[in-house]
Amino acid sequence: MKVIYQDLVNLLQTKPTIKDLSSKLFQLGHEHEIHNNIIDLDLTPNRGDCISLAGIARDLKPFFGEVKLPELYEGSFEELDLDFKNLSPEDCPKISFLELEVSELNMPYKPYLENYFKTLGNNKVNFFTDISNYVSYELGQPTHCYDAMGIKNQIIFDNKVVNSTFQTLFDTEVSLNGKNCLFIQDGEIINLAGVMGGKKLSCTTDTRKVLIECAFFKPESILGKSVKYNINSDAAHKFERGVDPSIQIRTLKRFIKIVEDHAKILSIKLKTCEYGNHNKISLPINTDKINKILGTKLEKREIINILDNLSFVIEDGNIKVPDHRHDIFNLNDVAEEIARVIGYNNIPSSPINLESIIPAHIISNEETIKLELINSGFSEVINFPFCSSDKTNTIKIDNPLDINKNKIRTTLKDSLIDNLLYNERRQKDSIKLFEISDLYSNKDNIIEQKRMIGIIASGRIGHNYIEYSQKINNKYINKVCDFLSGKFDFEVTEIDRKNLNTKNNNKIYYIEFEISNEEESLIAKNNIKKPDIKFIEYNPVSEFPSSSRDFSFSVTDLSKVDYVLDSLMNAKANNLKNSFMFDFFINKKSNEVKIGYRFIFQSKTKTLSDEDVSHSIDEILNPILKIDGVKIPGMHL
Amino acid sequence: MSDIDSLQPPKILKEFGTLHPINQTKDYLIKVLAEMGFREVHGPEIETEEFNFDMLNIKKSHPARQMHDTFYVEGKKNVLRTHTSPVQIRSMLETNPPLAITSAGKVYRKDDDATHLPMFHQIEGIYISKDVTFANLKDLINKILYQLFGNDVEIRFRPSYFPFTEPSAEVDILSKDKKWLEILGCGIVNPVVLENCSIDSNIYSGLAFGLGVERISMLKYGVNDIREFYKSNLDFLSQFK
Question: Which of A60, A520, A573, B164 holds its CA 20 to 30 A away from the CA of A302?
Answer without folding.
Answer: B164
